[in-house]
Amino acid sequence: MSPKTVDRAPDPALFARPRLAGDVQVHEPSGEGAPWVVQRSGPKYFRVESDLARLMRVMDGARDHAELAAALGQPWAAEDVSGAVAKLSAGGLLADGTVRKTRTRRVVFVPPLTVQFTLLKPGWLTRLAPLLRLPANRAGAVLAAIPGFGGLVALALLMPEVKAALGHPLAPGVYLGLIGGLLVTTALHELGHGAVLTYYGGRPSRMGVMLFYLAPAFFCDVSDGWRLPRTDQRVRVALAGIVTQSVIAGAAAVTALFLDPSPGRDGVLLFAVLAYTTGALNLVPFVKLDGYLALMSHLDLPHLRARTMTDARRFLARVLFGGRYARELPQRWSVGFGLACMAFPLYLVGSAMVLWAPLFQGLGMLGASVLGFGACYLVYRFWKAFSGLIGLAHKAGARIWRIIAGTSAVAVALAAPLLFVTVPYTVTGGYVAQHGRVELVLPATADQDAGRPGSAVRLYRAGVVNREQVAAATVAGPRAKECSAPFSAFAPMRTDVISLPCLGYELTAPRGSLEPTGAAELDAGRLPLWNWLYAKYLAPAGRW
Asked: Are residues 315 and 283 in the same domain?
């Protein structure tokens, strides 16, 4: 729920006789050793001390601070109540006289690059609680482990077939089945979280789809897990999705053992590999995935990522600019973990751009625009983070000369590799072999000046994950010509139905061993790093 308020100054008299805001609830401990939890605006949960929780529960808007202290008894005094009321009002937890209208937020943006679309509230899982208790025993754990680990053995036995499936283009129908299978698996993954939370007495608040660093996925909000009394219960809720996904991936891999060689078996093998891989990536604790939630629950440190990132920012600000800073967490590893949490999303987006750049560049203007947006977003995030460090240092009392010196040092450290480091510059496209000729085909947004006569070209057989060089060629023609090429020349898909406009260069290459279409990479020499970044990710969006 999202509060919508009318812009009006709060009435101070309301804080003299305070009461909680309408969207705030105080939950008693759900079991022995469990904390008091405050819930605000739907899925926002905060732990509070028992004394503060008792105060919040007796705030009825009728009693002043002295009367509240008398109702609570020792050790509360009117001054203590006044201090607590000031903190609660600053946190927006008290009724302040504004008119609040609540509405369900269907779309939620979670920085730095996640957008969630709520589709339903999975409260119906509570009706299945009796069924969820049936597999919750050692026998159920064994039954889940058999396909999970058995699938890994099956993939090892089928390793040659797995390599072939990952390194060859697939038919459109196989891709549709693969995408559908992964979407269903992801939905079941999220239902696994909700089912285990329901088993322990919690309630999932919402479920839907999201764009997680540009990749489509499902989500299930299990924030209510913070009300569970034991850390091991919260860890199991966090890991339930990975277990569910591993069981499905293992079942697919074992099934492939009994299938005859066919495109369908290739799709099943590819599905199993991708399901296992995405499940393993979910264990990475540096972004808000299952591994992070499990680690945070095990350590019993709420908001672990945000607090360690705060420590990391303060560490960087102190090193670069000086100043005095307090620590959010006393643990020595806090700064290192926070630095990893800051860097990993940038690495994730950067790796995705490098991995998917050939495909996006082959899609022409649309793909080039996506790459350009991704590059600009990375620059924006870096600039925003660095400006935040400067603001943090200023508040911490850093001297102006130190801030200028630190900023200059960072600028030099960035400029030096951009200006003086050179890297190989290649242009990605495809090739078409027909009628005894081989042509290099590049999207219309490609760098036309790169295709000079005599330039080296590498020809590949490309799959979803792997690619294998099948031949070497050179550019024979003096200039490009406008033409069209099958979509299979730009993406690892076996289809001749779709054609894309492109630029064609005649090649000198061996014809006999080549497939009709495949991937290609044009060697265009070396460029300074800044020029390479511009030519690779920004310039294509302007060529249309």
From this structure: no
Of 359, 393, 420, the last residue of a domain is 420
Residue 92's Cβ-side half-sphere holds a number of Cα atoms within 13 Å equal to 12
How would you classify residue 458: left for phi > 0, otherwise alpha for psi between -120 and 50, otherwise beta? beta
- The terminus-to-terminus CA distance of the chain in angstroms comes to 44
**Are 409 and 437 in a shared domain?**
no
Measured from the Cβ of residue 272, the count of other Cβ atoms closer than 10 Å reads 27
Dump pLDDT digits (tens) for 54-89: 888 888 888 889 888 888 888 888 888 888 888 888
Cβ-contact 313, 392 below 8 angstroms: yes
CA atoms within 13 A on the CB side of 217: 20
Residues 341 and 468 both lie in one domain: no
Last residue of a domain, one of 420, 450, 482: 420
Please tell me the distance from the alpha carbon of residue 195 to that of residue 96, in angstroms, as a whole number: 38
Is residue 380 within a helix (H) or strand (E), and if so which, with residue range?
A: helix 365-395
pTM for the predicted model, two decimal places: 0.81
Q: Domain tally for the chain?
A: 4
pLDDT score recorded for residue 8: 47
Instruction: Determine whether 121 is exposed, middle or buried from the number of CB atoms within 10 Å of its CB (0-12, 13-18, 19+).
Output: middle
- Report residue 262 as tokens: 């066919």
How would you write 430-496 as a 3-class SS string?
EEEEECCEEEEEEECCCCHHHCCCCCEEEEEEECCCCEEEEEEEEECCCCCEEEEEEHHHCCCECCC
Together in a domain, 129 and 264: yes
**Residue 23 pLDDT > 70:** yes
Q: What is the dihedral of CA 134, 135, 138, 142, to 10 degrees?
A: 150
Whichever domain contains 500, its CATH number is 2.40.30.170
Which residue in this structure is represented by tokens 């002043």?
64
296-301 average pLDDT score: 91
* Pair (404, 471) in one structural domain: no
How far apart CA 189 and CA 217 sit, in angstroms, is 10
154 and 292 part of one domain = yes
* Residue 496: closest CA among 172, 168, 178: 172
Residues 124 and 232 in one domain: yes
Structural domain boundaries enclosing 323: 304-420
405 and 275 in a common domain: no
How far apart are the C-alpha atoms of 320 and 403, rounded to whole Å? 7
Residue ranges of alpha helices (H) inside 18-158 are 50-58, 65-72, 78-90, 129-132, 138-157
Chain centroid to CA 458: how far? 33
